[in-house]
Design a protein that fits this description.
Rossmann fold; 39% helix; globular; 5-stranded mixed β-sheet
Length: 317
C-alpha cells in the first residue's frame, strides 16, 4: 500500500485519514495539520522524508502564478527544501489541469456562461481557473489584494493582475505566509464586523472562485442560493455553507468518507502513481490520469428552487 501525507499549516482539527483504491492501487491518504507552526511542519516533514511515497504541502503555496510569471513563496520553499528524498508538491500542477476541466464541465452543465459575474478571491494560486473563466467571457473581479492583503482594490483583468503582481510579489513573497493566508486556529475564526465590509463582493457576484479558507474568512451571514465550488471541505463546512444560504456545492476533488482533500494531496497521489520527478510531469500526464480516473466535480444541490431562479455560483478552493 502506498502512503501519501499532506503536512498542512492549517488546523489539526481538520486531520483525516482514509484508505482508497485508485486504478488498482491501494493508498493510505492522510492530512496532518500543524496549527500554523512552521517549525513543527518542518520537523514533521523531516520525519516523513523517505518513509512515505509522496508528500503534499497544505495550507501554503510554494508557487503563485500571474501569466507566464511564477513567484516563489519563501516560507513554502523553506518547507519544500526540508524534504530531501520523498517527492513533495504543493498542488499547483494539478490545479492548472483539473480546475480548467472543472470549468469546462460547469459550462457544459449550464452553471457558468459568458457574462457570468465572477469573484475570484485569489487568482494567483489557481491561475488555470482564472484563465479558463476569462476565456469563456465571464465578467471577473479578482480579489487577490482584497482577501489576501486587506487592500480594498478590486482588479478587473488578468493583464492588470499581472502588472500588480510584477510590482508587489517580490515583496509579498518574502512576508511570513500567515500574513497573507489564514493558518492554524485563524481558519476557524470569523470577524463578522470586518466581513460586513466585504459582503458586497460576494453578493454582487454570480460565481465566487478561490480558496475555501479565504472564502470562509469573510463569508456573509446570508447568501442567495449561490453555488459553492470548492475542495478541502469537511462535513461541518458543508453544513455551514447550507446554513448560510448556499444553493449548490460543487467539489473539485473526490470525496473520500465524507471529506474532500486539497489539490496538494491529490497531486501527491498522482506523483506516486506516475513514478516521475515532480518537475518532469507534464500537463498531459495529469490529464491522462484524470481521464483514466474519470474524475468529475461533485454537484450537491441544497435548494433546487433557489438554484433555478438565481443561477448564482461561488467557486472555492
Amino acid at each position: 500500500m502506498k502512503k501519501v501525507v499532506s503536512v498542512s499549516l492549517g488546523s489539526s482539527k481538520r486531520d483525516h485519514t482514509v484508505n482508497v483504491e485508485l486504478l488498482g492501487q491501494r493508498f493510505e491518504i492522510s492530512r496532518r495539520g500543524t496549527d500554523g507552526d512552521i517549525n513543527k511542519a518542518i520537523a514533521m516533514l523531516q520525519e516523513l522524508d523517505g518513509m512515505v511515497d509522496a508528500i503534499g504541502l497544505g495550507g501554503i503555496d510554494v508557487y503563485l502564478y500571474a501569466g507566464n510569471n511564477r513567484y516563489v513563496i519563501h516560507d513554502g520553499l523553506r518547507l519544500m527544501q526540508s524534504v530531501k528524498v520523498t517527492p513533495v508538491v504543493d498542488g499547483s500542477g494539478l490545479k492548472n489541469t483539473l480546475e480548467r476541466e472543472v470549468v469546462r464541465h460547469l459550462v457544459q452543465q449550464g452553471l457558468i456562461k459568458q457574462e457570468t459575474k465572477v469573484l475570484m478571491v485569489s487568482a494567483m494560486d489557481r491561475f488555470g481557473m482564472a484563465e479558463a473563466l476569462t476565456k469563456i467571457g465571464c465578467r471577473i473581479t479578482f480579489g487577490d489584494l482584497i482577501f489576501s492583503l486587506g487592500i480594498r482594490y478590486p482588479i478587473y483583468s488578468l493583464e492588470k493582475l499581472k502588472s500588480i503582481a510584477n510590482k508587489l510579489m517580490p515583496i509579498v513573497s518574502r512576508l511570513p505566509f500567515q500574513i497573507i493566508y489564514p493558518t492554524g486556529a485563524k481558519q476557524d475564526k470569523h470577524n463578522s464586523a470586518k466581513s460586513a465590509k466585504f459582503a458586497k463582493y460576494y453578493q454582487d457576484a454570480e460565481v465566487i472562485a478561490g480558496d475555501y479558507h479565504l472564502i470562509r474568512k469573510h463569508l456573509p451571514g446570508k447568501m442567495n442560493g449561490q453555488i459553492i465550488i470548492t475542495n478541502t471541505t469537511t462535513e461541518s463546512d458543508v453544513k455551514l455553507l447550507k446554513e448560510r444560504g448556499a444553493g449548490v456545492l460543487v467539489t473539485t476533488t473526490p470525496e473520500f468518507h465524507g471529506r474532500t482533500f486539497g489539490t496538494n494531496v491529490m497531486e501527491a497521489v498522482f506523483v506516486s502513481m506516475l513514478g516521475k520527478k515532480w518537475g518532469d510531469i507534464t500537463q498531459e500526464d495529469y490529464n491522462q490520469l484524470l481521464r483514466q480516473l474519470d474524475w468529475r466535480p461533485k454537484i450537491t444541490r441544497y435548494k433546487e428552487e433557489v438554484f433555478e431562479s438565481n443561477r448564482q455560483a461561488i467557486i472555492v478552493n
